Amino acid sequence: MLWLKALHIIFVVTWFAGLFYLPRLFVYHAEASEPVVRERLKVMERKLMIMTHIGGALAVAFGIAMLVLVPGFLRLPWMHVKLTLVALLIVYHFWLLHLKNRFARDACGWSSKRLRWFNEIPSILLVAIVILVVVKPF
Predict the structure, then answer these.
(1) Which one-letter DSSP state was computed for residue 93?
(2) Residues 6+ apart with CB under 8 A from 66
(3) Roughly what angle, to the nearest 10 degrees, separates helices 121-135 and 77-104?
């Protein structure tokens, strides 16, 4: 179980690195006017999205493995809230993919200000999830 937990945490950190940095690249992309900069950002976004996919998939896989090993976790109310927040992270992840694909086609009309606000979503979810897991308030 400790190995699964360690691997889960490692890949959660990897996943969040992408969830935090990809929207920041989008901000730079939205503000870039030089074609060479925009093309370089497209490459960076594509490569970071791959790492984010891997981190997210493995974080979820090791999380599921822990639930299979200790199904009693599913009876805990805080775990239901945590899993709901993780589901929201997955939705956010795929929204990032959608935005990345739009930027790749030069078809994203989001302003840098809107992208900056969008970038705060994973931070809020991370704080809530960590508090739930550590404090177990209910």
Answers:
(1) H
(2) 1, 4, 5, 8, 73
(3) 160
What are phi and psi for residue 128, nearest 5 degrees? -60, -45
Find the radius of gyration of the CA atoms of the chain: 17
Tokens of residue 12, six digits? 């959660």
Give the model confidence (pLDDT) of 78-135 as tens digits. 999 999 999 999 999 999 999 999 999 999 999 999 999 999 999 999 999 999 999 9
For the whole model, what pTM was predicted? 0.95
Enter the tokens of residue 26. 């989008």
- Count CB atoms within 10 A of the CB of residue 122: 22
27 membership: H or E segment, kind and range: helix 2-31
CA angle (15, 19, 22) in 5-degree steps? 125
H-state helical runs in 70-120: 77-104, 112-118
